Amino acid sequence: MSRKQVLISLAVVVCGVAVFALVKFAHRPAAAEESTAETPTVVTVQTGRLTRATLHGYVEGFGSVAPAPAAAGQPPATSRVASLVAGVVAETKVIEGQRVEKGAVLFDLDSRAAKVAVQRAQDAVTHARQVVTLQKDLIAGQNTSVRSLQDAQAQLAAAQADLAAAETQLAYLHVTAPLAGTVTRVNVKPGEAVDLTSALADIIDLDRLVVAANIPAAQAGALRPGQTVLVETEPPLTVSLSFVSPAVDATNDTVLVRAALPAGSAVRPGQFVRLRVVTATHTDCLAAPEASVVTDAEGQSVIAVVKGEEAEQAPVKTGLREGGLVEIEAPDLKEGAIVVTVGAYGLPKKTKIRVVSP
Length: 358
Prior knowledge:
Elements: H1 3-38, E1 42-45, E2 47-49, E3 51-67, E4 78-81, E5 87-92, E6 99-100, E7 105-109, H2 112-140, H3 146-172, E8 174-176, E9 181-186, E10 193-194, E11 201-204, E12 209-216, H4 217-220, E13 228-231, E14 237-244, E15 254-260, E16 272-289, E17 293-295, E18 301-307, E19 310-315, E20 317-322, E21 325-329, E22 338-340, E23 350-355
Parallel strand pairs: 1-23
Antiparallel strand pairs: 2-22, 3-12, 3-16, 4-11, 5-7, 5-10, 6-9, 7-8, 9-11, 12-15, 13-14, 13-16, 14-15, 16-21, 17-18, 18-19, 19-23, 20-21
Helix pairs in contact: 2-3
């Protein structure tokens, strides 16, 4: 056999092998697709049940505990104690944390000069009284004039007015509590000079506290005085909304709200707390586990209802959400229906499922 014939034979063999390989691999994908089409997809999921529940709508926010502001018939629950006269602190009669009653003496200012002034005024009153008595005796014997008696009486009245002023100045040196409460801060020590602008101490009535919060204006439309407020303290407190500001704070687009706290609450002024205002209550509504309600490709809220070994999507209208439950409305769904929870997102509209325990 010639060399040319050998080369032609090898070329024929190679072409034959190539054609066989192409035919073989061309049929493999079709077979795989056919096999896949014959075997339905089974999705592993977890399930829950539809229930009847009472759900609430909330406006949530963060606030701080503060003394109650002035209200009808009541002064503010806090006061910054000041002296009515300038002077030097002689004695501090309170300590921080001490409970005081209204009118209790908190500080004594140096009163030596004031006492001297009172003594002089008392002496002047005594002398003026003696002059009036003498003038009365003289006029009885017609040894003086009525005008002299009137002048003596006028001097007595002036001396008594001076005495009252001196006694008032002395009394002002005893700085008293303007309200009953707890002394939270003492700002001065004996020997320090103070004037009418000096803050000697702070007092707060701890039985009259409020929680104040700034709520975004977009959410504040649902707020009304009297609504229930859940304050997440330890222990939690349930109170009522007492104030909703009629104005919006333009600096941060919020509305100020306040809720009065009960006396004896285990909170402190300045404490930061979370609160929830109950704005809606829906009783005996159909509720689904929150994980079961998803949004499909069209933006519709749907829920996958289990029917035998299949899960079929059903459109729902959602409402309030609370405690891992979502209020739903759907004409064909009832309490006790089994729905897909874990694995619900991305499910086809109808598919085979395999339920596993959580």
